Each structure stands twice: as structure tokens, then as C-alpha cells.
Fold this sequence. Notes:
disordered N terminus, D-Maltodextrin-Binding Protein, domain 2, 327 residues, alpha/beta
Amino acid sequence: MNRRNLTTLLAGAALVAAALPHAAMAQDSGQPIRLIVPYAPGGPIDVTARALAERVRDSLGTVIIDNKGGAGGNIGADAIAKAAPDGLTIGISATATHAVNPWLYSRMPYDAGKDFAGITQMVRVPNVLVINAAKAEQLKINTLADLIAYAKANPAKLNYGSGGNGSAGHLAGEMFKQRAGIFALHIPYRGANPAQLALLAGEVDFNIDNLAAAAPNIRAGKLKALAVTSLAASPNLPGVPPLSATFKDFSIDTWWGLVAPAATPKPVIDKLNKAFVAALNAPETKTRFGLLLAEPVATTPAQFDSFMASERAKYQQVVKASGAKVD
Length: 327
């Protein structure tokens, strides 16, 4: 090779290198990836994020979990949105942060529709309508139809609890009341755990709770499951029908997934998607998530972006109907 050809080749290589996204080079630098979880450690979202971080170690290197809770998930989600789009910071998007909060909070620090690039959905967990078992026996409520009939025959005698105004349990409860044409007083608590304790103590009559949280008390006979909120019945609750069997298209599941800052280049997103989808499809992941009654859901980035957009549109109507607002 003569000197002129070598010079031309080197110049061309330099141009190609300059054209490569900085993000792609940053991600391949061997630096750890930071995965922001916008909730406290120990919950189902945190547990599943840590499980996936372990499984992608061989393909992506070290993934460090960074818990940034507060403001209903908004603090952590904002940190994801404002991170450098270099592939080294990604995070969790969830029903609250990317579908409910944009309509619930008067002021948002980020734009859920514009500030993020979907990587893949991770998980879907149905919610379940549960009634205090002793109350169900006392009132002779064995089915969803029994609950609706009792509520209509006894106006204003039922109440239900939730983890707070604008929580998934509150919004699902209001949607259920609207579709069923019944009234039940909403009693908000400071979190899902206090709401469940109130249900177990008989302070409230029914809740719509996350299946993973309610399942132990359903199995113990302390709570009676009347319906799940997913479009289809859950294999984890044989014989319990979906609300959609009574009210067409009724669906309020809990979900979460992985997102990156909006400007993250497509090659970087595709690399992350490939690694995390493989981790989600691994038999070990399905077994581990199954212990949490969580169903792994692997998608393309475009599918997850479309899903989050449809969820935002759905919850805009649900939040408006509930009247819930956080200033």
C-alpha cells in the first residue's frame, strides 16, 4: 500500500470514528451502567431490576442499581430523563411514573411522552379485587355479582381502601364503581401496606390490590378474591374471573419496563434491548419472577413506546373521572 492510499484510508477511518455516536463509544468503554429505580429498595420493581442486572452482566457488563424514590416515582424518573444519553444511565418506567402521574400532578419535572426512549417492557402484574373474608361471609358475598348486588341494595354502606389518592388501587376502584353503577366510599391510606392492613382488620370492606401483595392473604383465607383486573384470568388465581368478563375491556394492570433518556442513539437502544430481552426470556427469569406473581413481558423498543402512549391516554380519562389531584 503506497503512502497516499494509507493516508486516505486513515483519514476515512478518522471520519467514521468521528461520526460514531458518543453514546455508543461511552457504552463500550467498560464503565458500569447505572439503572435508576424510582422507588425504595425491596419492592417487586427493585427485586426484578436487580434480577435482570445480574443476568445481563455477561452481555452488558456491570449494571449498578440506583434507588431514587420520592414524589410517587417522579424524582427517579426525572433523573433518568435528565441523564446524559450515552447508554450508561437507564431506568425503570412504571404505571405511576409514565401513565398516571402526568395527569395526577399539577406540575411535572419531566415530559413522560417526550423525555424517554423505550427499551423494553419488563413485567405485567394483574391487580385483584379482594374483600375481607369475614365480611364476605357475613354479607354472603361470594362473587363479583354478589358484591355489586349488595352495593346497589345498600347504597353508601360499602367502602374501599387504597394506598392513597391517585394510586393504582384508587383509580381501579373508581373505574370499577363507574362501570358497575355503584357507590363505595374511598378511604385513602399512606401506602399499599397500610391499606391492606386496614382491609385485614375490617376497617374497609374491599380493596383492589396488586396480586403479588394480596396473594399470601388470599391463600391464608383472610381475603377473598372476587376478580382480577387483567383482560384475561390469571393462572395464579384459578377460578377467579377477570372484571372484563363483566365489564367489556376493563383492564388496569400494574406494569413496568426499561427506558433511556430520549436522545440515546438507536444503536445503543437496540443493544440494550437485545440484552434485556434475552434476560427476560431466560427460563430462570420466568421462574424467579413467577415467585412474585409477575409475568415477564419482552417487547421491541417501538412496542414499548406505543404501549406507554396508550396507557397514558387511558389513565388521562381514569384520573379525570376520579377527581384525584396532587399539587
